[in-house]
Amino acid sequence: MRSLLLTLLLCLGSIAGTFAGRSGRPPRGFVTTKGREFQLDGKPFYFVGANSYWLPHLTNQRDVEATFREMRDAGIKVLRTWGFNALNATELPDALSSNLTYYQVWDGPKWKLNDGPQGLRRLDNIVETAGKYGIKVIIAFTNNWGAYGGSSLYVNWIEPDGTHDAFYTNRKIISEYQRYVRVLVNRYKNSPNIFAWELMNEARCRGDMQNGPDCKAGSDTITHWYKEQSDFIRGLDSHHLITTGGEGHFYKRNEDVGYWYQGKWISDYNYNGQAGEDFDVDLTLDNIDFGTYHIYPQYWYANLDTPERDNFTIGAWGLDWIRQHAESAKEANKPVVLEEFGSFGYQNKTEIYPRWVGLALETRHAGILPWQFGMLGLKDGGGNRHLKYGDYIIDGASPNDGFTYYKNQTAVWKVFTDAAAVQNRRSR
Ligand SMILES: *[C@@H]1O[C@H](CO)[C@@H](O)[C@H](O)[C@H]1NC(C)=O
Ligand SMILES: *[C@@H]1O[C@H](CO)[C@@H](O)[C@H](O)[C@H]1NC(C)=O
Ligand SMILES: *[C@@H]1O[C@H](CO)[C@@H](O)[C@H](O)[C@H]1NC(C)=O
Ligand SMILES: *[C@@H]1O[C@H](CO)[C@@H](O)[C@H](O)[C@H]1NC(C)=O
Ligand SMILES: *[C@@H]1O[C@H](CO)[C@@H](O)[C@H](O)[C@H]1NC(C)=O
C-alpha cells in the first residue's frame, strides 16, 4: 500500500513531468518500449546481455575488440557497464601508476572530472566499439556500494557525519550527482549505441555505510529519489530509455513474507520494505521505462538450504522472485529485465541457471543479463594485471568473483548462448 503522501507527490509529479517528457520521435537505432517489449526500428528487441564493469579498464584495443567479438559470437546484444569510476584523491597516485581508469576525483565537496585518455575517453571507446559489434550499452551512474567509487564518496566529502540516507536526501549531494549525470548524458545523448541510462547500481537504504532514520520501510525515500533523477534525465535527453538499476525489492506486495529459521520467523527484507525499493510503485514512475531486478540468494540468505529451512532452496527462491517480477511488469505494462544473477559453484550454476533462465524466457522477460561475463586470453598487462580491490586479470582471464562464467565452462556458457538464440529469434 503506498502512502497518501506518495500518491499526492506522484500526481504532482505527473503534472511537473509534462515539462520533462519526451518530445519528437526517437532517432533511428534508439531502443524504445511498447508494452512489455523493447523495440528497435519497429521490430521487437529481446536480448541476452553481458555484465562487464572491467571492460572500460582494459588498456589495449585488441582486448577490447576481442571481448566484443566474443560477446557478439555468443549472441549478446547488450552490455551493461559502470559509467562511474571515482577515486578519492588519496588513491590517485596508485591509479596513475597502474593506469587504472577513473572518471571522477574527490578532494573536496566538488569532484573533478577526468575526461582525458585515462578517463572518459576509455568509456567513449567502449561505447563506440560496442556499436561496431552490434551491441548497445547500459550505463549506470553510481553505485550503492563502495566499489569503484560509489555513494560513500559523495557522503564522505559532502556530509561527513552523514549516514547512507544523505545520498538520497542531501541537496548538495543530489546536485553533485546530477552534475556528473549531466556530463555523461550530454556526452552520449545522440548515440544510438546507448541502450539505457541507469540511476544507480543496487540502490538500497543501506550501503557499505549504515542507513539513518530517513530511509526505512515505508519512507519512500528511494522512490522519490528515482522519480526526481529520472525526471531530471528526461529533461536532458528526450529519447534514451531510463531505468533504476535496482535489485527489485518489494514492499507490502504480500503480507508477511519470510521463513522459519531455528524456530524463529524471519521477515524477508526483500519483501518488507527494509531494503528500500518498492518495485511495484517504482515501475509506475513516468520516466522509469523498464524494471530491473537481481538474484543472489546465497548472498542474501546465508540460511537457505539448511535443514531448518525445509525446502526453501536457492533455486526455488529465485523462481518465485522471477515469477513475481514478471507479474509486476505485466501489471505496469512495461518491460522487465533480469539484469544480474549468480550462484556460487559450477554445479550450482549448471543446476540452477537453466531453471531460472528457462522461467525468465517463459515469462517473456525482455532482457536477461547474467553476472558476469568472463573473457579468457586477455593480453592486458601481459595477461596479468591488478585493477583494484580483488580484481585481477590472471593468466589472461578477466576478474573472477566466483560468479564469472568463461567460455571454457561449456555447460554454463551453453545455457546463455541457447537463451540468446531464443531471444534473438523473438526479435524479428
Ligand atoms: C595506459 O593505457 C593506455 C590506453 O588507455 C595505453 O595506450 C598505454 O600504453 C598505457 N600505459 C602503460 C604504461 O601501460
Ligand atoms: C577519502 O579520503 C579522505 C582523506 O583524504 C578520508 O578521510 C575518507 O575516509 C576517504 N573516503 C573514502 C570513501 O574513501
Ligand atoms: C520437502 O520436499 C519433500 C520431497 O519433495 C516433501 O515430501 C516434503 O513434504 C517437503 N517439505 C515441506 C516442508 O514442504
Ligand atoms: C552450492 O550451493 C550450496 C547451497 O548454498 C552451498 O552450500 C555450496 O557451497 C555451493 N557450492 C559451491 C561450490 O559453492
Ligand atoms: C577456465 O578458465 C579459467 C580461467 O583461466 C580457469 O580458472 C578454469 O580452471 C578453466 N575451467 C575449465 C573447466 O577449464
UniProtKB/TrEMBL annotation:
Signal peptide coordinates: 1-20
CC annotations in GO: extracellular region
GO molecular function: mannan endo-1,4-beta-mannosidase activity
BP terms from Gene Ontology: mannan catabolic process
InterPro entries according to UniProt: GH (IPR017853), Glyco_hydro_5 (IPR001547), MAN-like (IPR045053)
Reactions the enzyme catalyzes: Random hydrolysis of (1->4)-beta-D-mannosidic linkages in mannans, galactomannans and glucomannans
Keyword Hydrolase listed: yes
Major location category of this protein: secreted
Enzyme Commission designation: 3.2.1.78
Ranges where the Glycoside hydrolase family domain occurs: 29-342
Pfam families: GH5_mannosidase (PF26410)
Subcellular location: Secreted
UniProt keyword list: Glycosidase, Hydrolase, Secreted, Signal
Family according to the record: Belongs to the glycosyl hydrolase 5 (cellulase A) family.
Protein name in UniProt: mannan endo-1,4-beta-mannosidase
